[in-house]
Amino acid sequence: MTSLTPNQRRVFDVLLKADASLGAYAILKKTGFRGATQVYRALERLVDLGLARKLESLNAYIAVSAESQSTPSAFAICDHCGHIHEVVEAQEIKQLHECLAQLNFKVERTVVEFHGACSMCSDHSHEAKESPTYTKLKQG
Fold first, then answer.
1. pTM of the complete model
2. Higher confidence at residue 28 or residue 135?
3. What is the DSSP string of the chain?
4. Domains in the chain: ranges and CATH
5. Is the pLDDT of residue 139 over 70?
């Protein structure tokens, strides 16, 4: 793994231990840094290194699996319970990147998010919002 600064390591460790996506201010509380600037700089570097992804629709961050660090991934986000599945190796995303490369378009980052209901929520339509969770799902 790439060498991380102490601040980057602290932020990354918080993301690794989290069972949900975290906003910058939640990370700030967990790290004990004095200001949000330290968190944002660390997050920016972790995203650049492929160690974390920003979920744009949630304005939150997650650590990603080792498999998806070098490949585009997508996220299925349950709007009922907040559960997040990381979809790794989605062939369609790879194909889209190939099409864009043929157009001489350089993709700098990919954000693919799907919102809906997870299997638990669609099977047991319940009203109460549960604590969000995060799992990694490999799709081939």
1. 0.76
2. 28
3. -----HHHHHHHHHHHH-SS-B-HHHHHHHHT-SSHHHHHHHHHHHHHTTSEEEETTTTEEEE--TGGGSS-EEEEEETTT--EEEEE--HHHHHHHHHHHHTT-------EEEEE--HHHHHS---SPPPP-EEEEE--
4. 6-63 (1.10.10.10), 67-138 (3.30.1490.190)
5. no
Q: Is the CB of residue 14 less than 8 Å from the CB of residue 28? A: no
pLDDT in tens, 56-112: 999 999 998 776 666 777 899 999 888 898 887 678 888 888 999 999 999 887 888
The span from the CA of 52 to the CA of 15, in Å, is: 8
User: Half-sphere exposure (CA, 13 Å, Cβ side) for 37?
Assistant: 2
What are 62's strand-pairing partners? 53
Residue 73 CB neighbours (<10 A): 24
